[in-house]
Every structure is written in C-alpha cells, then in structure tokens.
Amino acid sequence: MPVQTSRRPSSMEPGAPGRVPPTIPPRPDPGGRGPGGRGPGGRGPGGGKKRTKRKDPLWARLTLIFGAVLMLTSGTAIVGAKALIGEATSTIDRGNLLGVAGKTEAEGGKNLEGPIDMLLLGVDARERWAVDDARSDTIIILHIPASHDQAYLISIPRDTEAHIPAFEKSGYRGGVDKINAAFFFGAQNGGGWEGGAQLMANTIKQMTGISFDGAAIINFGGFKHVVNALGTVRICVSHEVTSYHMKLVDGKPMWNADAKKTGKAMKPVVYKKGCQEMAGWQALDFARQRYGLPNSDYDRQQNQQQLIKAMAKKATEGGTLTNPIKLNELIKAAGKAFILDTGGVPIEDFLFTLKGVTGNELVTLRTNGGTYSPNSDGSREALNELSMQMFKAVKNDALADFVVANPEVLSTRK
Fold this sequence. Notes:
The chain has a domain at 58-230 and 320-409: 2-Layer Sandwich (Nucleotidyltransferase, domain 5). 31% of the residues lie in helices and 18% in strands. The protein has helices spanning 58-72, 82-88, 181-187, 192-208, 223-230, 256-262, 280-288, 296-317, 324-335, 347-353, 385-395, 399-405, and strands spanning 93-94, 116-123, 136-144, 151-155, 161-164, 175-178, 214-218, 233-237, 241-249, 252-255, 267-271, 274-278, 338-341, 362-365.
C-alpha cells in the first residue's frame, strides 16, 4: 500500500472495517521476569546516577493525565465549548517536542482533517534531580484515523533496541541503545526535556516511518488533582498481584520506605483477580506493577492502557462532561500535569477535533504478541515483523483493516 500523502478524510460507510472485532484470549508465556532479572525496565548504558529512593507511578501518571485529556474531548457535551477549553488550558506549558519529526506539508502539516498521530512520553524524574538526568520509560503512540471516531494506543517497550540518530543540540553523536535512552541523550548538555522529546520523536520516526501531529511529556504537577476529580475507576485484574511498591499501615497505603519508618506492622497490598472499582491510589499502583505478572512489562502496558480506557468511560458515563464545574476542574487539573506540543495548532482546535472519540471507541494494541521478544544476543528487545507492519498501517492510516486481519495485536484487557 502506498504511503498516504493526503490527509483529507476518506469516507467510512456504516459497517465498513473501521471497528475492531472482540478481543481474543491471551497466549500463556512462562517467561515473566522478576525483580532480579534483566527484563523490561532496566537502564541501558549511560544511565547516570544510581537511585535508591522510591519512584513515583509514572506510567500511571501518564494514563491518568492522557485519559483526562481524552475524556475531556469526547462526546457532544462539549460542542461549542472551545472558549472553556481555551481558558482552562491556558496554563499548559508549551514546547517544541517534535523537532524534525513533525508532519511535513506533504503529510498534512497543520491540517487536522485527516489522521492524527501523537507521541506520549512519561519521564522518570523528580524535581530535585537535574533536568538532564531522565529517561522516558513510557512511550505511547496515539493514532486517530481520518474518520475521527476512534482512537488506538500502541505502547513501545522501553527496552526495544533502537538506532538513535545524532542530535546536534545535545552533542550526541548517535548510536544503538535501548529506545528509552533517546530521551536521556537528547536532554544532555542543555538539550533539556524538549531536546529529549525531539530526539525520541526522531528515533521513532526513523524506526517506524511515523511522523507526528503533536506530543506530550508528562510530569508530576497537578497529578493528585486529576485523581481527586475522577474518584474511582473500574479495573479488571487478570492476574492476582502483590504490590512491589506499597504497603498498608493501619489501613493506610504508604510507599515501602515510608511504611518501614513507622515501625508498625505492615500488610501487603494485594490486587485480587476480577473486575472492581479502584480508588485513585489503587489504580495508579496497580498500573505500575510488572513483577509477579506472567508477561512482566507487557502485562503492565496492557493494564496502563486499560486504565486510560476506564478513565474515559468513567467521565463519559459519570456525568463529568455534562457538569460545567467538574469539567472545568478536570481540564485545569490535566493542564497542570504536562508539557504539550500541538504542532502549531491552537490547543482548543486540536482537542476539539477529538470530541467524537469516547472511552468505548478507544482500542488498545500490543506489540510482539504481548510477550518479551529478545534481540539476537538477548540484551534488548526487538520488534517483530508483525509489529513493524502495524506501525506501517498507522503511517498509511490503514490500522482498522490491519487489526481486522490480525486480531492477535489486540490487547485482551476490557
């Protein structure tokens, strides 16, 4: 199929292959990795300082914030609400996160009438750390077809081997590393988080051929406000798992390090199999877990994608979008939590374009069949041929047809 150069929306008749079939059962994989292994999540060469302090739930942060943005732009309840969106999002930090990875005029440029592709990055960093001491362990491609009535999320494993191009801004000469290192190398020598995002976006563009309409970097600011605005979300636990990060002390959830300091009895936080309503802290903690899950980081990716969908559904079904006060609070909360690049398009136009996408229209996809796929020497991951075909389908805006023909790429989470 030739690469699409026109971004004008093609017609989509009722019943056309723009909807995906039901999910299929997952394949068992005994190759899950534990805390002591070199599975997904390890830092590659040049990882910087050794860290012993607790880590905040970055993947969960990403899913909550992006979920908030998605649900705020979904449904007819906000038709005519551009002014509200513009005012509420006026505090969002803007930046050039795409660099040379933005869509060219031949690919549609700033025209949002065709397919829309966004790069979403979660950065493992704290305010007390140097701005150049960070990697992006959260890498998600959001694809919205030209019909603008559905959205797809594809997670790229952070241990994927990548050819990272040279980046003059930070003085990086290029090389082969885990893909999460691209952000680190781009942020060096004054490149900052903008440089990190630009190098990551260009690395993904060279790997997959996908150019982007926009990008977002998630940080910690405003995170708790989003959780509080949403309340509980319905999450389905496929495999019972004990939290690797938190304990209960007198019934109160605490980070492990803080719980030990109390000197009191600690109880494990256990997520039982089955569908259940989770409070904000539970949903966030559950979405972080990978140790003890059959497919480690891949199960975590699916849980994080599930959380995005659960949040979108909660908003569209819970009256948030029809309550101006709640809607404004939620947009403002999301606006405090990320750095955004909309490719020069006004943010209210960008978000308003996505108003037809609801939680029920959000399709979560997986690479490598949802299992760890080592490269030739086993040191990193490699994207298999089917995954590369999926990225080609994204570029050609043919993802719906691809999913129908290859249902095994569907996440099994509801």
